[in-house]
Design a protein that fits this description.
Distance between the termini: 18 Å
Strand order of the largest sheet: 31-32-33-34-35-36-38-37
Structural class: alpha/beta
Helix content: 25-40%
Number of helices: 30
Length: 903
Amino acid sequence: MPTRNLAKIFKPKKVAVIGASNRDESVGQRALRNLVAGGFAGEIYPVNANYSELEGYRCYPSLAEIDASGSPIDLAIICTPAASVPNVVRQCGEAGVLGVVILSAGFREVGSQGEQIEAEIRKTAKCFEGLRIIGPNSLGLMSPYHQLNASFAADVATRGRVAFISQSGALCASVLDWAAREGIGFSHFVSIGNMLDVGVADLIDYFAQDRWTDSIILYVESIPHARQFMSAARAFTRSKPIIVYKAGRFGASEKAAATHTGAMIGLDNAYEAALTRAGAVRVSELADLFDCAELLAGQEAPAGPRLAIVTNAGGPGVMATDALLQRNGTLAELSEASLEKLDRLLPAAWSHGNPIDVLSDADASRFGDAVAIALADKNVDGVLVVLSPQIWTQPLETADAVIKAANRSRKPVLTSWMGGVRVQAGIERFSQAGVPSYATPEKAVASFMYLVQYARNRSMLYETPRSVPIEFQIDREHLHAIFRERVAACDSDSNDYETLSELDSKSLLDAYGIPVCQSFPAADQAAALKIADQIGYPVVMKIHSPSIVHKTDVGGVALNLIDRNAAAKAYDQIMLQAKQKRPDARIEGVTVQRMVVAPWGRELFVGAKRGPVFGSVLMVGLGGTATELLWDRTFELPPLSERLARRMLESLRAWPLLGAYRGQAPVDLDRLIEVLMRISYLVADAPEIMEMDINPLLATPNEVLALDARIAFQREAVLHPPAPYSHLAICPYPTQFTRPMQLVDGTEVLMRAIQPEDEPMWCELISSCSPESIQMRFRYMFRSATHELASRYCFNDYDREIAIVAEIEQGGRKMLAGVGRLVADADHHEAEFAILVGDAWQGHGLGAALMDYCLQISRQMKWKRIVAEIAPQNRRMLEMFSKRGFILNRMIAADVVVAKKDL
């Protein structure tokens, strides 16, 4: 129940401070004084049996003795010692309190005894439905627009548009002190403490509905409940930015890994992939948090990384350029038209390129005109204006000219007025106009690249991938049987992790349509030579041992064996070196496979690892023996779409090598993307997989082939399978909702969940509908389905929104005849239902079929209530709802009928 009853905490009318005190510097004293001093307009009830009055308010011996005029307390602020908190929480529940903030410390942060107290609190809270708790070990919270200071902080948050959420109470205190000095305000300020109940995802969902919140800043050390976080964050970042500082970037090394991937995918890599996929912006320095939040909330996202720099001094321009290139930005290449305009505007000695040096004698007009020309250039995504105070410089007037140019463009404009007293008036003018200004060009460039990062991450929530046909039937029972057979064959059950042989690993890949170079096991030299003769030379020979992960480290790989004699010598050498370097290893012989000779092939490394927070993470990098040396890799959460797979490849430094390069033909990129998607499906389907290496994955102009593979799996997941897809942070496409149906007239219809690739068909459906149909479905009119509108309806977070499309094929062409949409609230308690049937298919029973199927899915999702809004004139739809037991309410508004049904 993510947002349920959180209003009791953030917008209370009655607040009790339990453990209130007048003892100097006590938490109870500070919390009560902050509440009173903050101007809280509601009722305040101090609770402490040792006092009769505190801060001018009557003090009650217990919650039970408070006469709250017939309505319960909304929020209880608990300041009592840790050991007493479980009993206090019970008293809150019995008194009908639904909001609790526990400021007390002494819980799991101090050890096992504290953990036991937390467990007792959790058990107690479950007895009272709807009771929500922030903390324990929390500094508290502030809601400035509601004049609520429910904290023991020394400073007060003023009003602003940023919601701040922190796991560190100490950091909260520092941030408040810094914000007071800088004049930064907040919509909400929350120290979440140990997150016994209310967590980061709950607050993101709640602040998404808050009118005062334009952006969210997160300081996190860990993120429990990863799937809820991803779902909430992706919903929020569709319209507003989230900025994250993740502490603990370089944690202690994890235990020894079974594969290369296990060693290469760290916990921080998983966080990086997850935050990017969530559309959030991760900053590397605390100082960047608020600059970034203000910038992202107030500036248009740039279309790309191409920056134009306008300056009156060469040195700062070079500084900005260096900073831009260091952060993988792009120095915009000005168009010929822009260069001609600048030639006419500027003295002959100007730089004739980007950075645009308007020279030291530039007045305000010259600056402003140069900025306007740069903003109008189609090759420019943003402009940085750097002013260094010279004898002729007009800092204030130039600021006004830049502001005027910025207001005429939707592209971001950032400024750096370098200096002190002379430029201060210009900086203040920028602040008043909402144009971001920075002390140094490097700082401005860093902020611009955060804007670029936000734009890139957000675009992934809206991009329509190309359709890459991946159609294959998977025998999932056979997939899991391979793991079960391996567990049964194990010598002992002492080790929770086991490793599949190369043969079994390749068998799994082959089952998912991932091309493999087939290997054949040989227990002795004679068998190896016989296989090599049958395959045909040249061949590759590898050590066959479940104990040896890195074959090349023990001399266990021999390539390009051109004849029987070479193969015999290789066998002897492999066995000798393996026994010398790993005398403890169980060696089962060798494997033999054909030697793939591909002079135009590129070797990639593809891996996966299941981590403790975000579950399975995929990795793609430059492959071969230099994988760990070159360290060119990228990470993503499964499942992959075509666009996500492509982005992974594009983010590699080796990306240009995949195209035509120095006479080499480009690799089959479509095939490579399809293979990456298939690998992600394998990882999504198999929670047993802990680690996986495919190295190398050979990509050529004609094929993509896995030459070697190794998979480590978890015994426990084999013996006791977890819930489907529980090992993934993002809910995959719900194939379980795909079902063929037949309409009453015999028309074959495929009911299935919508997917991003459906955007063209969805737009075609919309265009085929009459204005009346559009009005009845969306309750407003639009001329055409834009990409932004279509992406909103075709990109679903399947954890909280499911649109079922009715796909019909006519004349060999697929089309959508209708859509039924279910959108659950953040609590997964109630779902809003809407339906659209194309004009050509109305009256064929399609609407009824969609409705019945969506109701069936709602029950499977365990939603408790379905709600729909129908136009009063839509009699056919009203009759359908009525027949299915919906209660129709016509009294809410004249232009809508609300239908509700409890499931």
